[in-house]
Design a protein that fits this description.
- The structure holds 2 protein chains of 2 kinds.
- Helix content of chain A is 52%, strand content 11%.
- Chain A is of the alpha/beta class.
- Chain A has 2 domains: 171 residues, Rossmann fold (3-Layer(aba) Sandwich); 204 residues, Up-down Bundle (Dehydroquinate synthase-like, alpha domain).
- In chain A, a hairpin with a 4-residue loop joins β7 and β8.
- In chain A, α7 runs parallel beside α11, α10 crosses α14 and α11 packs across α15.
- The longest helix of chain A has 23 residues.
- A 5-stranded mixed beta sheet of chain B has the order 3-2-1-4-5.
- Chain B starts with 6 loop residues before the first helix and ends in a 9-residue tail after the last helix.
- Chain B has one domain: SCP2 sterol-binding domain (Nonspecific Lipid-transfer Protein, Chain A), CATH 3.30.1050.
- In chain B, α2 runs antiparallel to α5.
- Chain B is 45% helix and 20% strand.
- Chain B is of the alpha+beta class.
- The chains are: A alpha/beta, B alpha+beta.
- Chains A and B meet through β5 and β8 of A and α4, β5 and α5 of B.
- β5 of chain A pairs antiparallel with β5 of chain B.
- Bound molecules: fe (ii) ion.
């Protein structure tokens, strides 16, 4: 059966190559401007990654008009305003974002203000409020997880109203995504594992969500295969460029999948444990993914059954139910392996969540924006039962 | 040219329906729980309707362009009309820019299950109030 309606739109040019982050003048020429402003954070800068890109740009005759390195862990409206002001004053014609999800979202949101002016939350939060292309935005991810370099979404925290503001817009899609596995070499094993599990969660949730389409399915399946084949190796040997590259591509493909299909209750629960107990996003998703799959089991077992062989499970002769269970088992086995390597916790109790906090997490999951896309209605008591299992 | 011949007519039809919803506790209570102030700005014909859920009673204020709203929804009058028959997929309409929503979208999406019963109320309301010619979906 096909969905009643879907759209597939991805205007981001994606290039991949080892070392390409310091050598992408050919792609920049295509964008037709010569002055770029850098958006990144202190950690990335201290690792020398920002310099690597800037040196490449300047030696290619591109003018770097300035750098904004004060992006915090979770991007926030004041950060975006400061970043936009500096970029504007510097005379930049475009932005280069180097970092993870928070840096990329800051650059996306700042680009709205640089291009259009106005008040970020007041004028542009919501869905498809923009009416024309923004200035060129180049994104170089340094983690293999968020996929934000190819999504139509930016999430920025609004401190004044204490709410995470989502911006969804075709014009937020970056002009160019530069995937260079060398930019992810310094990720420690724990972050390698948890960010890749975030990408896996994007793929699995995009695959089973209500807003699925044959396009998002294809990208989701490709992601699942790449992650299952490479996550352990990249976690074990961070210098393995092939494994690093595979995760970077997987994260990108998962981004394309969930930018269209959205995510569901696993992200809902992860947002809640992140908001209430500060559990890192990837870790929360990794722990909760098998429990979320169980929550949705009846609604999506046929789809889960199709994922099992892609996850490396033998399913010939099995019923749809049994094959679907194999998919959940495969995720548990993967988590188990990563746990044995010391790269991933397995239970909520290991990451600072208190048992009395579970009902509050369940309530917050219901209220999360992801509930709307989840294949099964997100009900607090039912979610609570699964949270207890994950505890 | 849209389905409704004048702003006055559209405001009368849709405003009347919103007041009916406001007087239907099973729906209104859930909307009130959201505490949201939502402004609908319609085009062709042009009408503004503000729904204020921040008090103890749903307040429908036609023409209110002054109050600061949490959510601003803009769309053609025809799309709005079709929506209340339950014949518009909100996500598709947003993606296709048939509707533009400014503000916290997740909060709006959350209201969808609450307003579902109104889709059956709308055609009935049209017929019972002499607006049968608009009962087309
Ligand atoms: Fe995520």
């Amino acid at each position: 059966m096909l969905p009643e309606f879907f759209e597939f739109y991805n205007s981001t040019r994606v290039v991949y190559g080892s070392g390409i982050a310091s050598d992408f003048k050919a792609e920049l020429d295509f964008l037709g401007i010569g002055k770029y402003f850098i958006v990144s954070d202190r950690i990335i800068s201290d690792l020398g990654l920002t310099k690597k890109v800037v040196d490449g740009l300047t030696s290619a005759g591109i003018e770097v008009t300035g750098e904004f390195l004060d992006v915090p862990q979770d991007s926030e409206v004041n950060t975006v305003n400061a970043c936009a002001d500096q970029a504007k004053t510097s005379g930049a014609e475009g932005l280069v974002a180097i970092g993870g999800g928070s840096v990329i979202d800051t650059a996306k949101a700042a680009n709205i203000l640089i291009s259009e002016g106005g008040d970020l939350v007041e004028d542009y939060s919501g869905a498809h409020t923009l009416t024309r292309p923004l200035k060129p935005l180049v994104v170089i991810p340094t983690t293999a997880g968020t996929g934000s370099e190819v999504t139509q979404v930016a999430v920025v925290y609004d401190k004044d109203n204490k709410v995470k503001m989502p911006f969804t817009d075709k014009f937020l899609l970056p002009s160019l995504a530069v995937l260079d596995p060398e930019m992810t070499l310094s990720l420690p094993p724990k972050l390698t594992a948890s960010t890749a599990m975030d990408a896996l969660t994007h793929a699995v949730e995009a695959y089973v969500d209500l807003q699925w389409s044959p396009f998002s399915d294809t990208f989701a399946i490709g992601t699942v295969e790449l992650i299952f084949k490479n996550i352990v190796q990249a976690t074990k040997n961070g210098e393995d460029l092939e494994a690093r590259g595979s995760l970077l591509i997987a994260s990108n493909m998962a981004g394309i999948a969930f930018s269209h299909s959205m995510v569901g209750c696993v992200h809902g629960m992860a947002h809640a444990v992140g908001g209430i107990f500060r559990v890192p996003h990837g870790v929360a998703n990794a722990i909760l993914l098998p429990y979320g799959m169980e929550y949705n089991f009846e609604e999506v077992k046929d789809k889960l059954a199709k994922l099992a062989p892609i996850m490396g499970e033998e399913v010939s002769g099995l019923s749809a139910d049994d094959a679907a269970r194999k998919a959940i088992e495969a995720v548990r086995k993967l988590n188990g392996t990563l746990n044995e390597m010391g790269a991933l916790p397995l239970r909520l109790r290991e990451v600072g969540v208190s048992e009395d906090g579970l009902p509050e997490i369940a309530e917050a999951t219901v209220m999360d924006g992801t509930s709307f896309y989840n294949p099964r209605e997100v009900v607090a008591e039912e979610i609570l039962a699964h949270l207890k299992n994950a505890y | 040219m849209g389905l409704f011949e004048s702003s006055e007519k559209f405001e009368e039809v849709l405003g009347g329906f919103f007041r009916l919803v406001a007087d239907t506790p099973s729906v209104a209570d859930k909307l009130l729980a959201s505490k949201l102030i939502i402004r609908f700005t319609y085009k062709d014909p042009d009408v503004v309707l503000l729904i204020d859920c921040s008090g103890d009673k749903l307040d429908i204020r036609p023409g209110d362009t002054e109050t600061k709203a949490d959510v601003e929804m803009s769309m053609s009058a025809d799309i709005a009309h079709k929506f209340w028959f339950g014949k518009v997929n909100l996500m598709a309409a947003l993606t296709r820019r048939q509707m533009v929503a400014k503000g916290p979208i997740p909060k709006i999406l959350k209201l969808l299950p609450a307003i579902k019963p109104t889709y059956a109320m709308y055609p009935k309301y049209l017929d019972e109030n002499g607006y049968g010619q608009y009962n087309i979906y």
